[in-house]
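Interim report to the steering committee. The following record documents the input for Mandelate racemase/muconate lactonizing enzyme family protein (343 residues).
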Amino acid sequence: MQIEHLELAAIDASGAMASSTGLGILVRVRAQSGLTGLGEAPTDETSVLGSQTTVSDWLNRYGAEVVGAECGNINRLNQLLDGVDAGGKSGCPAARAAVEMAVYDLIGKARDCPLHVVLGGGYRDTLERVGQIGSDDEDVGGSASAMIEAGFAAIRLKIKDGSAQTVKRIQSVLDAVGHRPLVDIVAEQSLGNEARASMLVENLLTRQFWPNLGLVQPLHQLDLEGHRRLREKLPIPIVLEESITSPAAMSQVVRTGVADRIVLDIWRVGGLLNARRIANMCESAAIGVMVSGTCRSAVGRAAMGHLAVTVHGSCPVHFGSDQTEAMDPLGQGSGLGVDLKWD
């Protein structure tokens, strides 16, 4: 079954189609049989590599390679995509992930089975969700309580630094939700050095120990040695997020023993095949995996859901910044399970 056409459409802030600029780009591939597959690439105008213009350009580059290719051989497809990238590094991981996602969706539809079956099969059929609290939220305790009441199983709290005010914000969340849900402090590489990261955690644990607390990416994404020392020193899990960019990067994390858990983003690692490779490494090394990503529509949410059920473990899934509505992330039917009226 050969791919004969690829087309793009922007997504606006509501998740609907947009004619020009938007928050993401939908990809549709069509096979000669008439079947179609969908993919999604989030965009970010604050980043040159993530801008809509750049992502669109790379989508067209990757698309030129897959048009005419046999879509049933995903390894051969990725070999073609490798030919677009220079020096073995993905030119635009989000764009590559979107094209590959659309082909996976097409394969699932051709086989008349859900995408997670194509990926190897699921360990679970239900998913718990993660809520996220921004670093500018003025009532973090109230927001955390509302998320738990809404059914979220875990909370990601973004921070800007390791100041006393930040400690108070984290304590407010912990006081509001207690020891039951997972609470991850998302530093986004902002703590600068090991001393600041250690001081933040020590100040938090002075009053009592919180077994549900985790620290996400406190140091620069390339500072694996610093994260390793923090993991040895601190009594809470060290979680890596921005450091997980590829299977090669994950192999370094496993080799150096720097993480208790990772955050796995389909678009950061360049696609579902790479994500599954990383998940396999984590399983062999007893490293937990939380699937996360900045998706803009049901297409991306479905891809994250199908990936998450193939991961051996019970970590909840972070579907985006404010996904509070009830949803079926796995959709209904074959492939992604998402029905889209492209016109």
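The longest strand covers residues 3-11. The committee is asked to note this result when reviewing the revised timeline.
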